[in-house]
Amino acid sequence: MWKATGRGMRLVALLALVFAWRPGWAASLEEKMSELRGLFQSSYSGEDYYRTDGLLVTATGTMRPLHKAPAVASIITAEAIEQMGAVSLDEILETVPGLHVAPSSLNRLDPVYSIRGIHTGVNPQVLFLLNGLPVVHPFFGARPSAFRLPVSSIARVEVIRGPGSAVYGADAFAGVINVITKEADDIHGARMGMRAGSFDFYNAWLEHGGSWGAWRAALTLEWQKSGIDPHRIIDQDLQTGLDRLFGTSASQAPGPLQKDFNLLDGHLTLTKDRWTLRLWGWLQQDAGTGAGIARALPASDSDGDDIAQALADILYRDSESLANWDISARLSYLYIRTDSFLQLLPPGAVAPIGADGNIFSANTQGLALFTEGAFGNPQGRDHHLALDLVGFYTGFDTHLLRLGAGVKYIEERTAEAKNFGPGVLDRAPFPPLPGVLTVNGGLTDVSGTPYIYMDNQRRNLFYLSLQDEWPFAKYWSLTAGVRYDHYSDFGDTVNSRFALVWETRPDLTAKLLYGEAFRPPSFNELFSKNNPAAVGSTDLDPETIRTWELALDYQRTPTQRWLLNLFCYQAEDLIAFRADPATGIATARNVLDLNGYGFEVETQWRLTEDLQLLANFSFQRAKYEEDGQETLVPEAPGMQAYANLHWTFRPHWSLDGQYFWIANRHRAAGDTRQETPDYSLVNLTLRRTGIAGHWDAALAVRNLFNEDAREPALAAIPNDYPMPSRTLWAEIRYNF
Fold first, then answer.
1. What is the H or E stretch that residue 569 is in?
2. Which CATH code, of 2.40.170.20, 1.10.3720.10, 1.10.287.3510, 2.40.110.10, is assigned to 4-178+189-735?
């Protein structure tokens, strides 16, 4: 999909690739620029400002020092994760500049990874990778429902802020999160640990790394379970309003959010010579649905999500058989099973029913009393099979070419049972108003009928990509790339990138970045039907974005580093559900454009040998444009800050403190409530290592001052979503 406004930058990227095939040109450029380089001589040597950055792979597919990588990125290592006491990926991501983890106001309070003001209810604009492979549920185009990832298996997390479709294709829109798991050399033997804490939180894990015959093996297993925080009270919900309207008393409010979970996570990595085999299994049982799928608190233990995921991949890499080539082939299979038993309304609820049998339909037929509650049981089985081929060519003196190609097959099979909707109540003999139809809790199976929420769907795609990393002069490098994707259900898209990196001085690096990205419509947006809230449309285009960034990385002293990132972006054709003028039913449409800008500043500062400070501040301002009207993006924080002070105050003893500040969140257009209040949180983690040579112990407190922090909710929850209250946990580990 070619847009006139992006052709110029695509041309620059393509010309850069053409020059990359002329090895003699770089040499002549070196001669011509020798005098220019003399203007930037520094009295400091490179050794004075030797960089000990982590190596970043997500930006280009090759290992690059972070300050030279053609991207604005963050790396969080296993050591940093342990120091801060994080127990889930969400806690790690909240420390990244410009990234805020918030509960979705639309989808079960699942986490939204809000990046630079790009904030939507189901969050498909952020690509989640596990060891470089996408983990995407095609129904929503995002991570599976109730997704929570434990941390014991994580070697590091790499976060790219900004588009990445030129390398990774779909969904690398606002950013890319790549979780890289541990291999045998990251573990060195065996470890085990346990945690227990507030609200029946329990956590246990086991790690082992070593040799199994000729194979190097790493195995991690982790279990987490938590009950309900009784202090996270919803005092009013959707059912509260229905009770007022119909004189009932069905609402479960005031009552606590149903955010309990019970999950098992396992990873196995085997490596031998040129082969790497990875297996991942993830099982979530009876995950709570927050304030309910329809913003009506469910009756206790009356609903939940059962979700299973399995990812298997085998990688073959050969850098010896062909001169100047490093080639790899990767075959992967992802399976996702969802079985959601959802209570839309609690027992005793009265609700309007449309002629199609749906709750809250645009065309009301009558009223129904749900004596045991209104229930839906949607199910899905997803199969993703992919083959990716990548080749790095080093035959040119100063160029590294990356060529990629791949194919992917995606299938989603559906099933459903419910006690409302088409095929269930659409032929019900509604009594004349004010009469009420009585509906019991028995579910009707509509699988394989026209009344299901979505028919079985398939999607095929293939891609070709080309990228050049070109250090065309001393202290200068250019990365340019382009990728072509073809989808069976909407057609073609082309996305490019351009990154100029200048090591201005040994202590200062400047980056000028441009990138394009796209997000294909999800199956829900394309094919959803018979839904009481919204239906899909096959007349959709992909969402697109163009982003410009200027980044400065200043290593002021060997122990003090400052980073400044300036960004702006333009996104077009964002998909939202809007009422169809003909039917009154909310239907998916490309109706929104989005413009945003802002900055991020961060510092890494070792104050003394035993005291280290990490801090960042982010500002963004993003506006939607629809039908010529501009509105600020709701719910996303306009400002946020983070500070982390880590103190090793005695041998084997450390204290880690975290401070979070979230501010300047706006309501949606037409919502007259006051803005959601700002909040700040403080976390502490005390750790003791090397007890009797093998034992480690830790004690942590989250939300130390028990602040009443709130995240935005739709108007049906007028006082917003309360965040977790003060939480304690204790940990013990044993290293074999």
1. strand 560-579
2. 2.40.170.20
